[in-house]
Write a structure and sequence with these properties.
Strand content: over 45%
Largest sheet: 20 strands, antiparallel
Number of strands: 20
Radius of gyration: 32 Å
Shape: elongated
Length: about 375
């Protein structure tokens, strides 16, 4: 036997010995581990319903604690290899010793599995997609939803919350929202925009900047007449404030929206052109009049009080107080109608007393 053949034979025997040792280790450790893995999978599938029930209660408790709302989930479906689906979500808020529903969602599909939850993989190394179907939003005390047909997709990870597309019908106005919130920096920032359109109006609203004090801008086309606007918003616990919202550079709007008590106030100031003949622009001319509006909305009725102080309407200088009362008579989201009274008081036009107005009205879809 030549030295070369002897060397090849020794190498082959060494490889066979190493292969035999690895095979023995696989028998000792690999097969039991594989058996343990298969047993765990089988156990989880067999006990899937009890695990889902436990996680359903966990999700309800965590969302309730984070949002100060009562959250209930009718059922939860999913598996080790199948995505999770939540059905019959209801978000309620306590008021006067009873719970009022705020949000209802028929179905939410989540791109994660029980395996991800058990291994604590949520939001750590992947994005989670939520697909919402048939949601409804209720104002406090209302039996019929103000927003219905809510559907769309949301993407969440450790650093951001992204609305890929969220569509709904708000008071018969189709609406679509896109954008997101990022919290990579010290102060979270948002960047949302919304488009809407129906037979009477269309437009775009963009909200961006710091989460606590965002900026707002966009345009509205009402009966083929465009109105662009921009301003600032300050959010707080019960609602938000509007600071120096400029409308067409001819008006400034300031106000407070108390969404908790459904009370809203606005101060609208028109501006006239600069004495130099420049185009109308806020701050370049003189303030011309003032409009103050306070509105209270209840479960089925509302009261709006306005005070107009020396505002030009055509060629008339108008000073008056207007009170608008009304109640809802529609019985469904697609059949909204209002009726009420409109009265004026202390009316002075071109610095002379003027006859007051009292009348009744009825507004419905057919009115337009």
């Amino acid at each position: 036997m030549t030295p070369l053949r002897s060397l090849r034979g020794a190498k082959l025997r060494g490889n066979l010995i190493m292969y035999s040792r690895r095979r023995n280790r696989l028998k000792v450790f690999g097969y039991p581990l594989l058996l343990l893995f298969v047993t765990a999978i089988a156990y989880l599938e067999i006990n899937r319903d009890s695990l889902l029930a436990s996680y359903k209660r966990f999700i309800e408790d965590r969302i309730s604690a984070a949002s100060n709302l009562k959250v209930s989930i009718e059922s939860m479906e999913g598996g080790i290899y199948r995505g999770i689906t939540l059905k019959g979500l209801v978000f309620s808020k306590e008021a006067g010793g009873r719970y009022l529903q705020m949000l209802k969602i028929e179905r939410v599909r989540i791109s994660c599995r029980l395996w991800d939850i058990l291994l604590y993989r949520l939001f750590k190394d992947r994005e989670i997609k939520f697909v919402v179907s048939r949601g409804e939003v209720f104002l406090p005390g209302e039996e019929h939803p103000s927003v219905h047909g809510l559907r769309g997709s949301i993407l969440i990870n450790r650093d951001s919350f992204q609305v890929l597309s969220l569509k709904a019908i708000v008071r018969n106005l189709p609406l679509e929202i896109r954008g997101g919130i990022t919290w990579q920096e010290r102060f979270p920032k948002m960047d949302f925009y919304s488009e809407f359109e129906n037979r009477y109006t269309r437009g775009l609203i963009k909200v961006y900047g710091p989460l606590k004090e965002p900026h707002i801008g966009g345009y509205i086309i009402l009966f083929d007449k465009p109105y662009d606007f921009s301003g600032d918003i300050l959010t707080y616990e019960n609602g938000f404030r509007i600071n120096d919202l400029r409308l067409k550079d001819e008006w400034t709007i300031n106000g407070e929206m108390d969404t908790k008590h459904n009370r809203y106030s606005l101060k609208i100031v028109p501006w006239e052109p600069s004495p130099r003949g420049d185009p109308p622009r806020v701050g370049t001319g003189d303030k011309k009049g003032e409009i103050n509006i306070v509105a209270d909305f209840r479960e089925q009725d509302f009261l709006v009080h306005g005070k107009i102080e020396h505002v030009d309407v055509g060629n008339f200088d108008v000073l008056t107080e207007v009170e608008l009362t009304g109640k809802r008579i529609g019985i469904s989201p697609d059949d909204i109608a209002f009726e009420g009274k409109l009265t004026t008081s202390n009316t002075i036009i071109n610095y002379a007393p003027f006859r007051e107005f009292k009348g009744q009205y009825k507004l419905s879809r057919d009115s337009f």
